[in-house]
């Protein structure tokens, strides 16, 4: 991307070793990784392996002494681990001799129809006053946001969720994300109530996503390499809308140099009041020095640009509709969670599910293996299997409590049978048939090649899931159906208790000592 757009730009591939031979630096800006801070991330905090890379910003600041430092990240920075993230950043800035100010903004203030909340943290040295820059503009929350109209407009929502939230936003989409943990695009869907049946729930394309971030269509096209995974959604989801950068730049140029004794906006009675650095939750806007900190009643709307309609960004006749399978899954999660949604929205979902249902196929060449195989398949449960129930009984008897059918990584659409969230231990109970146990797995005599392919894919998915969890700091315990389940439960208890685990990296453990192998065609 950088090489295509700015071919003469020198790119340092690794921030941990980067150094810059420059003098008189006016601004050092960084949108450091949110992986360890965001709701969907590991929640390791500001010291995590990804978000902790922000330390290299301070390393460079110590050398080059920029007049301004600008950082950007997610609002969870103000809350996670009792606000340890923002506390750490402001303390480091103060040690370097900077005064600081921060503010949460909503990208909709630029006119883009995307509800995207981000923290802008600005620090200045000498007479540079970050509070004057960030708080000089405040337009207040628009009436249509504070008091949404009763009519149902085009609205974005997270079709991949539905258990803990939906993210339904009237007239806009929820935050564009960088894709799921396994690299799949996760663009929000858009509900167009006035469209014909079957076209009321649509998925924006990748160039629509670029436009919704304020980028020209095709901006990330150069990131697609031959034979490589498409990274465009990841780039788009991690981007900062350029209009936000333009606003900050204009404020930096026009804001006066002064030392602010008190700055606030609006009529909040708390404005201008000091607050405790050790508070477990920091306000949406504040400024401070190494002596004191003040909360600010600034809204998330520095300006009020006219909100552009979603139809300016998404051609309702040219994008894919939400599939029947995706709609069915979303409806099921809504029903299970009982989350409140507008009645017309739910009714349209049911209609969409009905009209997108594919016709029943009549397959004359059955490959299921005959009556005996069908009988065996009918006895294969997806959850609450006999070995799983017995293992849970043993674990419960040992005093362990756990989550069932839980997603250890929220962005990964795969659930593990038994999960210990605090210990970061996930238990995968595998049946010998479906998961191709080399000791006890059997094969159908009919259509052997097709069954071999199907079971091989299951084994590959098992391995891929385990590898992803380990990469995110989870220990995966695999329990085979043929294992001694009482013994397996005791081993799981030992791992959860932390004996011999805290000193070891996340890994895959086979409770019965038998790893098994992948099937081969």
Number of strands: 16
Number of helices: 14
Helix content: 25-40%
Shape by Cα distribution? globular
Structural class: alpha+beta
Any idea of the CATH class of the largest domain? Alpha Beta
What is the first-to-last residue Cα distance? Answer: 40 Å
**How are the strands of the biggest sheet laid out side by side?**
1-2-4-3-9-10
Element order: H for helix, E for strand: HEHEHEEHHEEEEHHHEEEHHHHEEEHEHE
CATH topology of the largest domain: Rossmann fold
**Which architecture name of the largest domain does CATH use?**
3-Layer(aba) Sandwich
Strand content: 5-15%
Uncertain ranges: 264-270, 516-521
- Counted up, domains total 3
Mean model confidence by pLDDT:
85
Main sheet properties: 6 strands, mixed
Rg, rounded, reads 27 Å
GO biological process, one term: methylation
GO molecular function: DNA (cytosine-5-)-methyltransferase activity; DNA binding; endonuclease activity; hydrolase activity
InterPro entries: C5-Methyltransferase, C5_DNA_meth_AS, C5_MeTfrase, DNA_mismatch_endonuc_vsr, Restrct_endonuc-II-like, SAM-dependent_MTases_sf
Enzyme class: transferase
